[in-house]
Amino acid sequence: MWEYTDKVKEHFINPRNVGEIENPDGVAEVGSIACGDALKFTFKLDENKRIKEAKFKTFGCASAIASASALTELVKGMTLEEAIKVTNKDIADYLGGLPEEKMHCSVLGQQALEQAIANCQGAPAKEPGEQIVCECFGVTDREIEKAVRENHLTTVEEVTNYTKAGGGCTNCHEKIQAIIDRVNITSEPEGLKEPKQKKLTNIQKIRMIEETIEREIRPSLKQDGGDVDLIDVIGNRVIVATRGACATCKASQFTLKGLIEQKLREFVSPGLIVEEEPK
Question: Which residues, given as ranges, of the chain have pLDDT below 50?
Answer without folding.
Answer: 192-197
